[in-house]
Amino acid sequence: MNNTSTSTRMLAWTSDDQHRLETVRVVLTDRGLRASGHIVSALGDPFGVSYSLLADPEGRTRRLTVQTDSGTGERSLNLTRAPGGQWVADHGSGPRTLSLVEAAQDIDLLASAFTNSLAIRRMGLHRAVGSATVTVASVGCPDPEVSAVQHVYRTVSTDANGAVIAYSGPLGDRELIIDADGFVLHFPGLSDRLR
Questions:
Q1: pTM of the predicted model, to two decimals?
Q2: Nearest CA among 81, 79, 75 for reference residue 49
Q3: Domain assignment of residue 21, given as a range
Q4: 2 pLDDT above the threshold of 60
């Protein structure tokens, strides 16, 4: 008998200038979160991204797989966090340990609105007032190189519909609007949710 509760959501965002679209299917279970998404960007040098992500029941990212394509070629990345805490990256030429992002429990795919939800959900900042400075494993697009980046989140307000969260990071200072489930609705300068 399977007693696992499951819910599935389909989310979509567009950029302020309508030149980027992201869709993601999110499956939430007692065992964590699974997501599979696609990003298409037509601004500047066009590129496409396909990604899948797994997070454990505590919301910590365990694996990210990324495939990108652009005018300069195709690239891939498998980023996995081992049970001992080390991140291992494989760009197709063999795995290597990434000690620079060892403190990260979350990832941030730079062109993605969805991945900004991961730390917020993990810390419950959409449900209660709080603040945190977190190290994330930041993944570029269309070149999926990994670096360590600091994000600062502070809950400004919460209600039954979600929260307003002050964000500070590589994209500057923004006020994010978050839904009741912890997913980004509006990230000024990056994306607005369509559904």
A1: 0.91
A2: 75
A3: 6-193
A4: no
